[in-house]
Structures are given as structure tokens and as C-alpha cells.
Amino acid sequence: MKLRLRVWRQKNADAPGAMVTYEVDGISRDMSFLEMLDTLNEELVLRGEEPVAFDHDCREGICGACSLVINGDAHGPERTTTCQLHMRSFEDGDTIDVEPWRASAFPVVKDLVVDRSAFDRIIQAGGYVSVPTGSAPEAHATPVPKADADSAFEHAECIGCGACVAACPNGSAMLFTSAKINHLNVLPQGAPERETRVLDMVAAMDDEGFGGCTLTGECATACPKGIPLPSITAMNREWLRAARKVKR
Q1: Which of 37, 43, 45, 46 lies closest to 7, judged by CA?
Q2: At residue 248, does pLDDT exceed 60?
Q3: Distance between CA atoms of residues 206 and 138, nearest Å
């Protein structure tokens, strides 16, 4: 395959950026999107040019580091992570636009790499449970209804890639935050911090400068792990319940 790539290049966070066009040839349809970018970078290095900086780690669809907007879609045209997107999703001769996540809370570090540490700070505000030190408790010591366990597992699948933010026209982080809150709040282990968790994590999300949620649903559509849109509604109920309880 021969492709025309229009890639966002930006030297650093303070420098202006622009789309730069590259031609790549000999691309196999079985390559992943990141392998295609590796091929481009090999050619750039051979020409003495600066390779394109992009983020990645496991390349197995688990870590969520491979955050790219491809032809306007977070992670590209398939509902998967960028590292699991293959070039058979494109046609020979296609022009492909490759950009970083676009959100004020995710500042560009270089080229396609953005700083997503805002997510880490939201987790630090309450995305944990209090556990006693000592030996592990018996596995069946705390009964959990199946519906609650299923909900917890569903929300725990969030890998924090940020596709929800990139896809949202408002740059909202509500789907990510709701996944992290609902994952713990439905379990008995999360009960001690249930009220403070939702209040503190939502406050941290707002402090990071993410946009407001208008339930357009683009976040859930782009999520590679299928976090459901009603997760946001569940978080809003948790927040209202906690806010009323704290006021008493």
C-alpha cells in the first residue's frame, strides 16, 4: 500500500504546530497502525530528519497509551485502540490525518504525545479503597451480588486512554471519571469512601479544566472498552446522594 500521511508536528508544548505531509510506500495491510508509523520513522531517520514522536507501550490494547486521532476519530475508524487498528482498515492511496488528542486538559508534549496526568490526579483524589494491613481476607468473606460484580467488572475495563475526552465536543472527562467511581462504589469494599470519593473526584475533574457533559454520547461511541453511557447517569445519582448527605 502507498499512503499519504498528514501528521501533526509540534516541537514542544510552547512551539506552534502544523500538519506535515509524508508519503509512505510498501505498507502491508497486516501491519498495525503503529507499525506503519514505525516504518515512517525509519525512513525519516535514514533521511536525517526528526522522527515523529508518538506514545505507546504494551501494543496489546491494554494500557491505552496509543492515543491518536485518525481522520477525526479517536483511535481511528474501528472501535479499538490505535495499536490494535490494522492497515486493512484503509485503502491503497488513502490520505490519513494523524493528530494528538485535542483537549485543553491534555496539553501537547511533542508531536502526537500529550500529557494525560490530569487523569492520574483525578484517581489520586479518590480512586482507591481503604484496606487493612495483614493477610488477605477469605475470597467469599464479603458476598457481592452478581449484578454489582458485573457492573464493577464492566467499569473496571476502562484503561484511561482518554478517547472519551478526545471524542467529546466539549472535552469532557465524565465517562472516565464515572467509570472509576462506579467501579468502586458498587462494591462493599468501596463503601467507606463512597460519598467522599464521588465528591472529591468530580471536584478534581472540574479543577483540571475538562469541559461539561451534555450527553452527546460520543464518548461511549469512541470508548474502545465499551464503557456504557448510563455510567455517567449513575455517577450523577451518586453525586447528588453524597451532596445531600454531606449537607445534613
Answers
A1: 37
A2: no
A3: 39
